Structure formats: C-alpha cells, structure tokens
Amino acid sequence: MTSVPTRIPSRRRAPLSAVSRERLERALVGVVLVVASGALLATAPVNGDFWWSDAPRHALNGAFVKDFVAAMPWHDPKGWAVDYYLKYPALTILFYPPLFYFVEAVAFALLGVSHFVAQATVSLFVLLLAIAAYAFVRLDFPRWSALGASLLVVGGPEAAFWGRQVMLDVPAYAMLVTGAYFYARSFRRERPRELYSALVAVLAAIYIKLTAAFIVPVLAAHFVACKRGETFRNRHVVAAAILGIIGMLPAIVLTIKFGAINVQSVAGRADDLPRTSLAAWLFYVEAIPGYLGYVGTVLAACGLGLVLWRRPAPLDPRLAWLLVGWLAFGYLFFSLIAVREARHGMMLAFPLTVFAVVAVHRVLRFPAASIAVVGLGAVTFLYSLAFCPPPRIEGYAEIADYVAQHAPKDGVVLFSGYRDGNFVFDLRTHQERRDISTIRADKLLLRIAVERERGVGEARLDEHQIAQALRDYGVALVVMQPGFWTDLREMARLEAVLHSPDFVRVAHFDITGTIGHSDHEIDIYKPTYPPVPARRRLRLDMPIIGQRFTGELGKP
To answer: 488-544: per-residue pLDDT in tens?
Structure first.
C-alpha cells in the first residue's frame, strides 16, 4: 500500500494588510524623528560649556521656577525672588515670557538641575517641531514627502544649530508650527476642539518668545478672508478670539513692565542697520540658505512662484495662501525689528520648506518626488549635524567645581568676567553647595543696563572703598577674568585691589573653546585675612527695568 505524501504548507508570508502597513510606516516615521532629535542632543554642548551668553540664563531661569515652587514663598514672593537674584545674579526670567522655564522646571524636578537636562528640554521641542512639521505637510502630501520636509525643518543649518543651544527660538518655533497644524485641521473640518487647540498652541509660542505673535494677524486675516460672513456667526470662533485677547494681556503687561530690553531691540541702537537701507531689507533674504541650504532655497523660490501663479497642487490653495501670508507678513515683521539675527527669522523657514516640497512634486511624479524630498531632508540634516556644530566654551564647570570645594560654608564669591551666566549656572548645579552666594563685580561697581553698549554708570569708589566693600560682604573667593573691562576706572581699581597684599592668587584656569572668544583665562583669589561678613544686605540698581533691588545675601 503506497502512502500519500503529506503536503508541506507554504512558508510564504501573507502580504501585509493596509492597516498593518499604515502602522508600520507610522512607526518608522516616529523612529526616524526620535533618532533625529536624539542625534542633535547627542552632539550638543551639555557639560556647562555654554557658548551663547543667554543660554545659561535660560537654564538658570528654569532652576528659579523649580526652586520657587519647592519653597512656596507665598508670604513674600517678590522678596524671595529678589534674594534669589542676589544669590544667583544671572536671572533674566522677567525679561522673557516664562512658559519654557516652567517646562524646564518640571524636567529639573524629575532629573536634577544640569546643563544636560536643560538641553534635553530643548530637544523635546525639537521633536515636537519635527512631528508638527510632518503632520502639517502630511495633510496634502505623501507620507515620505512629509518626513523629508520634517527633516528639512529641524535639520536646516540654523534650526540644527540653535536646537543644540538652551535658547527659546526652536521651542517657540515648535509651538507655532503646532498651532498652524491645528488651525489647518480646524479650518478644514470645522471642529471646535482643534480651533481651541490651535489657540492654546499659538499662545504657548508667544509665552515662550514674544515675536511668535506675528502669526496672530496672519491667521485672523486668513480666516476672515476664507470664511467671510461666517466668521462672526460662529460662536466658537468668537469665543476663541475673546480668549485669545484675554490670553495676550499678561504678555503685554510683562512687556510693558519688564521688557524694556525687548522694546529697545525693536527700536534699535546706533550701530544697527538703518531701516531705510537696502541691506536691512535684504538681511533675511540672505539668511534663507542658512534655513534650507542652497538646494532647498532654489526649490522654495520655485515653489513660491508656482503658488503665486496659482499652481500649488497638491497643496490646498487655501493653505497655500496662508503660507504666503505667513512668509510675507513675517518677513515685514522681522525686518522692522532693528536687532537682526538670522535666528530671529527662523520661523520664516516653514512656509519656504512647504514651497520647496510643492516644487519637487510639480517636477517629479510619485514616488520619485517623495524619494527626492526625503533625500533633500536627510542630506541637509546630516550636513548640519556634521558641519554646523554649536560652539563650546569650556572651563567654567571646572571653576564652579573648584569654588564648590573650597568656599567656606555660607561663603560669598565675587565674580568679575564676561561669562557670569556660565559660572552662576554651573555653580547652581552643585546642589550640595546651595549656601554659596555670588556677587557680580559689574553690578557692585557699575550701573549697567545688560550690556555696555546701552550705557554704563560708575559707582565712584576708590581702591580703599572697594577693598572695604569686599571685607564688609565677607568675600571669601574672587573669580576674575584678567583685564575684564579694566578700561573702566572702578574695574581697574578692583584688579589693583586683588594684586595688593590683601589677596593671593590660589588657582588659575584656562578657558578653551571651539570658536574665538575674549575670555582666555580665569584667576581665583582669596583674601589673606579671615573673611567675616559685617553686612549681608545688598542693594543693586536694575536700570533696564528702572528698579533697585535690596535683599539679603545667603537667602533663599
């Protein structure tokens, strides 16, 4: 009897269902965006080696919020804040909207106060920017084109550079694009939830960086132009408008009361480009290659031409005109601000990116168009990662370590140098030495509004009076950058006091960096007499906000 051979089942896998393929592609996009934001974090300065002077101040502001919430000084919040500033005199929290600092404070509370955690907070916003850019472009374009556009947004040289600094530009940009995405969805689907989400996101962008407010009239004008008579008959639109106005009021009050430096940036200084000059109006045109690269810039120009020629497909024509308004009004807005820096106009890069995608899709068919966009985004990202590294200034973390090890309990340190923010924040990361207070020499001996270019007043103290002030405040260590502002009389006298028999140099640190800088070395001095504080109350002038702070050293 012959046996019947058993049929061996095929090992061939069943093809993926449409749903499974969709999930797999979404997961792959998510992995790429997480890896991209992680790569930027991995190549960012995170060891107290801040370069841009505002970066450690933004980090310190988050520490202030964390410490304020932990202390809960509701009996005298203003007095507590003044004492905190006298202890850590590099705060700028009142000069900028506070939202980023609250997010940063949560990260500090969970993971501790450090440069790495501050930078990781920025990296979360980099990831949000990547996701929001992808989601917006995905509304009208294939998935892989949206991925390429997202990589181009976060991987453009300027965004990749500032996304690796503890700065407000990329976080505000991320919330702005998030708001634009929710606005686009609410505009198409007329869902109140998405309209309110757009409102919250745009307000969040403004409360991170005030210049994001330029988008408000763009969105309002676009909505009215498209909806016309329906605008004021929709109760949700009216409610959102009212809530938006109310939500803006605190930002306006903060700007009026504490934002004089921002108003001055708009008004300009003597060395800024005149608004009537051609160079002033071409500044951000010349900055565009820094946003997209040269290939992306050419494609963006072609895409803009197609949109103006009414050939935006596959982009929704209504969204195309929103992006044109975003670019045009944003360009006008940023060009009118007298202090011009390429990072300020970074928010103009998003509509340009979308226009570049339009150009590729008009020239190539799917899937070649998507492959080209992904290639452009990936190459630009990798170029920025490899060839646009953020500068590092190293040495201040080691100086803070030395001070933390050698300062006496409840000691007072005098700092005289350009990078006070680096030193103060790096010292704050020493949780075990919260007893140390820092006095800035420029605040003690001068009356200065943020930077020398805005004017300097001198305290008219001779060498004996300066030496006596150091004794009175019980200064136990002096951290000094040799030659710092010694063209000013009081600063030269301070240096002379440190070279007198009352002080001896106990340490020397070299300051190194990947970019040119003026602070090449730091010396540390200690008094030859036992430091015993005769007074703890300190009064500092704050001319930038027209106030005078008086508090007690050693608190909070």
So the answer is: 999 999 999 999 999 999 999 999 998 888 899 999 999 999 998 877 777 776 656
Residue 7 has pLDDT above 70, yes or no: no
Residue 352: C-alpha distances to residues 157, 209, 305, 307 (Å): 14, 21, 11, 11
Encoded tokens for 448: 């200065």
For residues 456-487, b (16+ Cβ closer than 10 Å) or e, as one string? beeeebeeeebbebbbebbbbbbbbbeebbbe
Burial environment of residue 420 by CB neighbours within 10 A (0 to 12, 13 to 18, 19 or more): buried
Distance CA 136, CA 138 (A): 5
The structure's pTM equals: 0.91
**Euclidean distance between CA atoms 108 and 115, whole angstroms:** 10
DSSP letter string, 171-188? HHHHHHHHHHHHHHHHHH
CA–CA dist 65, 84 (Å, integer): 11
For residue 477, what is the enclosing H or E element?
strand 475-480
Tens digits of per-residue pLDDT, 324-334? 999 999 999 99
Of 54, 80, 111, which Cα lies nearest the Cα of 421? 54
Amino acid at 68: F
What is the H or E stretch that residue 27 is in? helix 18-42
Q: What is the dihedral of CA 219, 221, 223, 224, to 10 degrees?
A: 160
Task: Evaluate whether 522 touches 511 at the Cβ level (below 8 Å).
Answer: yes
Contacts of 362 (CB under 8 A, 6+ apart): 303, 306, 311, 313
Contacts of 218 (CB under 8 A, 6+ apart): 322, 325, 326, 329, 330
Task: Please determine, for residue 547, whether its predicted confidence score (pLDDT) is greater than 80.
Answer: no
